[in-house]
Amino acid sequence: MSFSTKNTKVLRVVRSALAVGLLSAGAMAQAADLTIGVILPLSGPIAAQGISTTKGIKAGIEYQDTVKGHKIKMIQLDDASNPSLSTRNAHKLISQDNVDVLIGTGGVPGAMAMATVSRESKTPMVSFTPIGLGGDKAEWVVTTAQSGETMVSAVVDEMKRNGVKSVGYIGFADAWGDVAFAALKKFSAEAGIKVVADERYARADSSVAAQVLKVMAAKPDAVLGGGAGTPGALPYIGLHDRGYKGAIYGTHAILSPEFVKLVGDAGEGLIVPTGPALVGDQLPASNPSKAIIDDYRKAYKAANGEEPYDVFSAYAFDAWLVVTKAAERVPADIQPGTEAYRLALRDAIKTTKALPATEGVFTYSPASSFGDAKDSVVIVKLQKGKWLLQH
Fold first, then answer.
1. Which one is the CATH code of 32-146+289-374: 3.40.50.2000, 3.40.109.10, 2.60.120.200, 3.40.50.2300?
2. Where does the record place the Leucine-binding protein domain (predicted)?
3. pLDDT for 214-263, tens place per residue?
4. pTM across the whole model
């Protein structure tokens, strides 16, 4: 055998060894990825929200795509605004894709369905929907959205500052309408404000004329709308059409560009509570969320080619932020893709303390899914189609 032939055989052996080594290294790197399963309503009735949250997730990836040497792998599925599909997708992400954490989804029913799977499978979950869980049900789940109680409490504080003595209510005839009204009753009683009317309507209704007339007959100083999204515009349009001259208030559930377009002149002067992200450019430098909102806006523009325009993308960005900042505190010797990592990540999320995010400062605990307090809430007023910060 010639020297040339020997060299050729040796070279083949070296190449084979290198190929095996590279494949092994690649497999190890893949196994060490932090895998995040994201479920969004990209189709169906609340698809507009899903599109916004997709952009927020993209901004999150732009902001941070590695954690302690682990590349972040994101798997995204559409639940078509259907809670049954939310459940099915969550099971798939956990059993087939071996995700380390879940993020999602739009709409309380879908998010609650995901939370059940999260708890049963012992997989941490961060939602961007206001799901209020306590006790054992909250052990594996947190949300970046504010509770209805927190937001309505802030609204009632604003009513008191503005001298409101009586208030009427027009809200959804469903769980969200009940949550908002219960909070209104509780906090208005503490503030010395009398609730003089409670009227309800279905999300699919096209008119609330009868409800508006009943509320106006009670002659309240102000009216609080307890709707959400574009259907939440109906009470304000009805009040405007019938010449109501009192103050109008709402909750954070109506903060979407679509709502602003639909409500038009009827929304002029509407006062609403929100997290800081919506008016980030109007915040003083002393606001603890100011710096991360600036980072979010830069990441959003880099990822989506436009400026952020709504709150839903901010909630989703915050979910990504909560996961990545918690992952930074997981011990280095615990590897993603394992039961130990999921437990450690859950513990890190639940022990998050004073984390500045775009929607407030988050501090979580094992006993609750909510993480921000009323001091993170800001009040905005709708004037000429723009939300303006009220100091």
1. 3.40.50.2300
2. 34-363
3. 999 999 999 999 998 889 999 999 999 999 999 999 999 888 888 999 99
4. 0.83
